[in-house]
Amino acid sequence: MTTIDLYRTVRLIRRFEERAIEFVRSGEIVGGIHPYVGQEAIAAGVCAALRADDLITSTHRGHGHVLAKGVNPARMFAELMGRESGLNKGRGGSMHAADFGLGILGANAIVGAAGSIATGAAWAQRRLGKSTVAVTFFGDGAVNEGMLLEAFNLAALWNVPVLFVCENNGYATTMPVASAVAGSITGRAKAFGIPAFTIDGQDPEKVLAATTAAVERARAGKGPTFLECLTYRFDAHHTFEHRTRLTYRSAEELAAGWSRDPVEIQGARLSVDDRAAVDFEIESLLDAAAGIALGSAHPDPDAALQYLYASPEVFS
Predict the structure, then answer these.
(1) Mean of pLDDT values over 3-19
(2) Can you give the pLDDT at residue 314?
(3) N or C: which end of the chain has fewer CB atoms below 10 A?
(4) CA-to-CA distance for 30 and 26, rounded, in angstroms?
(5) Could you tell me if 41 and 202 are in contact, meaning their C-beta atoms sit under 8 angstroms apart?
(6) Is 50 exceeded by the pLDDT of residue 114?
(7) b/e for 96-111, b at 16 or more Cβ within 10 A?
(8) CA gap 56, 41 in Å, rounded
């Protein structure tokens, strides 16, 4: 993964999210989204270290993860808009994006739940004799959830090739980490014998380096690793905040967060001309993607029960 490739990914995620917020405001996306603005370096750096057949599980704030793993932006826009051409035919929406063909086992709105899915999937792949690695993303709000701690235990006990990536943006919705987490976040993984590291989650290249080492370790049969990526969410926890105007963060804190923008950090490593060329490429890509999504049909209401059950005979 080159410097320009990492910049392309963080820029894609940023502009996708900014456009998605615009679609929320226009009403094309109903119900709102959890923006990933500010955390792009983590998705970009982690997924850059993965093979095409590696697996990921995601969170309610998952657009960046699935885009970095290779999802077509047009299909993702369409999914957010509830259109038939969406990633999951408009039925999953923002918090449940999945594409098994790309190794995306699904975003998950249940806090901490995706860690167990990734651990089980990685274990199953190893049982099949494959060298597949699974990565699970979660926020700081998930580290006190029993499901995730159980996943740590089994991953360590069975030496599972899984990478636990904590995106510590400082808040679980509006709850500061210091008010919710006793001890340290990495200490939870270390208690199970899992190597755990705290890294700069705003620098895509530092995230890539740490992930590469963890993935190589997992592929070599040495088991799980835990990465706490220190990051900052620039936008709202959910777009409902744009109306409610919650004031749990000061203007000074937000300005300090924006001073370490992952798009700018990675963009500064490019020449002016190369950066401008990538920016133009991304805008053109997203123009086309938005057009495809907006032109897609809504699902037929008569088909609302499709895909709810494995067997089509349930309602026959």
Answers:
(1) 98
(2) 47
(3) C
(4) 9
(5) yes
(6) yes
(7) bbbbeebbbbbbbeeb
(8) 16
Counting every residue, how long is the chain?
A: 316
Task: Kindly report the backbone phi and psi dihedral angles of residue 175, in degrees, each rounded to the nearest multiple of 5, phi listed first.
Answer: -85, 115
Contact 230, 202 (CB under 8 A): yes
Residue 309 confidence class, pLDDT cut points 50, 70, 90? confident
Phi then psi dihedrals of residue 134, to 5 deg: -115, 145
pTM of the shown model: 0.95
Backbone angles phi and psi of 28, in degrees to 5:
-70, -30
* Angle of CA points 62, 14, 228, to nearest 5°: 50
The amino acid at residue 148 is L
Is residue 183 pLDDT above 60, yes or no? yes
DSSP codes joined into one string, the chain = --HHHHHHHHHHHHHHHHHHHHHHHHTSSSS-----TT-HHHHHHHHHTS-TT-EEE--TT-HHHHHHTT--HHHHHHHHTT-TTSTTTTSS-GGG--BGGGTB----SSTTTHHHHHHHHHHHHHHTT----EEEEEEGGGTT-HHHHHHHHHHHHTT--EEEEEEE-SEETTEEGGGT--S-HHHHHHTTT--EEEEETT-HHHHHHHHHHHHHHHHTT---EEEEEE----S-SSTTHHHH---SS-HHHHHHHHTT-HHHHHHTTS-HHHHHHHHHHHHHHHHHHHHHHHTSPPPPGGGTTTTSSS-GGGG-
